[in-house]
Amino acid sequence: MEIKVVRKVLDVNDTMAEQNRKMFSEKGIFVLNVMSSPGSGKTAILEKTLSFIMPDIKSAVIVGDICTSNDADILAKTNVPVVQVNTGEFGGDCHLAAHVIGNAANNLDLDDIDFLIVENVGNLVCPAEFDIGESARVVVLSVTEGEDKPVKYPLMFRECNAALLNKVDLLPYLDYDKEMAIGYIHQINPDMPVFEISAKTEEGFDPWIDWLKKKVRQM
Amino acid sequence: MHELGIAMQIVEIATSSIPDEMKNVQVESVNLKVGKLTAVVPENLRFCFDIVAKDTLLSDAKLYIEEIPVVARCKDCNNEWTIKEPVFTCKKCKSGSIEIISGRELNIESIELADV
Ligand SMILES: Nc1nc2c(ncn2[C@@H]2O[C@H](COP(=O)(O)OP(=O)(O)OP(=O)(O)O)[C@@H](O)[C@H]2O)c(=O)[nH]1
Ligand SMILES: [Mg+2]
Ligand SMILES: [Zn+2]
Questions:
Q1: What is the distance in angstroms between the Cα of A25 and the nearest Cα belonging to chain B?
Q2: Which of A59, A212, B3, B105 could bond to B48 as cystine, CB 3.0-4.6 Å?
Q3: Of A4, A9, A93, A157, which to mutate for an interface test with B (greatest number of B Cβ within 10 Å)?
């Protein structure tokens, strides 16, 4: 006997994500979901980004990691509230799900925050699939990775609102074809802004910070 | 490996879709629609499904996965086409302003229960 079901498999996550989104928007908080493969420089970028926008914009961070608190320790030095979530438990090792963000947000004083950054788990596949209730998504790509990452992980690049091409300070030492990488990004997402930056030297940060501030203020 | 979490959701949704008076009937198959743009690898999903379905009403269930092609529509010239290679610009007018019509599905369509 056939029974019709017709339901989204990620129904539960999507519903939680909508609840988060409603809660964040009621509090006027802009939530940025930052994603990349491991080691592209998410934590380093966030550290620098916070130094540019604090204390102007009251910020907080939720950082997801499989099992360490290293990233949280680094970010805590910026004096913003940091909540670390480890996703090592069964079935949740590769991305942050909406209920995890909802719980983590309970540990923050949401009335005292305008901007919440979520550093997702280093992975270009799974996080793209899970809505967490964010306002915008950015993907970080570093010049030490292959130029063709965008075409290998099209969903991630479709789902994001901006790309950060990081570690450009290393370009003189590499055979990296930057134009090719940006071309691939635009092949997947033609209108996507691409910010070429270095979290080490702060090169290229001004346009990125302007973009971000505008988004936070629109909230 | 988020396929594990997805497989768990499938078992949960399928189980809760069985009518109360049939809560002891085995599920023979689960019919899924999975869009090609979705970050799910069918083999991984099957593998995970077999693990999490153990000791449930779905322990012998087959997973039928219908893969849905990525279809886009150009917002500028209305051209509609199937995306086969990773290029998301309109083939006709080169516009980058497109809408994805299908290819993001991850749905349970139906389940098939054993005859009693
Ligand atoms: N040269 C250079 N090194 C960088 C830059 N940004 C980050 N790094 C280095 O790259 C390494 C990884 O940076 P992280 O910020 O930890 O990367 P991540 O994306 O947070 O990594 P995970 O959280 O493990 O996924 C560190 O050794 C950083 O110091 C950059 O712009 N230039
Ligand atoms: Mg990090
Ligand atoms: Zn067109």
A1: 26
A2: B3
A3: A9
Residue with tokens 């899970």: A130
* Domains of chain A from N-terminus onward: 2-217 (3.40.50.300)
Q: Which overall architecture, per CATH, does domain B3-69+103-113 show?
A: 2-Layer Sandwich (3.30)
What is the per-residue pLDDT across A161-188, written as a single tens digit (0 to 9) for each? 999 999 999 999 999 999 999 999 999 9
Predicted ipTM?
0.90
> What are the structural domain ranges in chain B?
3-69+103-113
Cα A119 to chain centroid distance, Å, stands at 5
User: A180 touching B, CB under 8 A?
Assistant: no
Q: Which residues does A179 contact at the CB level (< 8 Å), separation at least 6?
A: none
* Those residues with Cβ within 8 angstroms of residue B32's Cβ, 6 or more apart along the chain or in another chain: A9, B10, B63, B64, B65, B66, B106, B107, B108, B109
Spatial CA neighbour of A120 closest among A25, A30, A56, A35:
A35
Strands B70-74 and A59-65: unpaired
Question: Chain B within 8 Å of A54 (Cβ-Cβ)?
Answer: no
Both structure tokens of A59: 């910020």
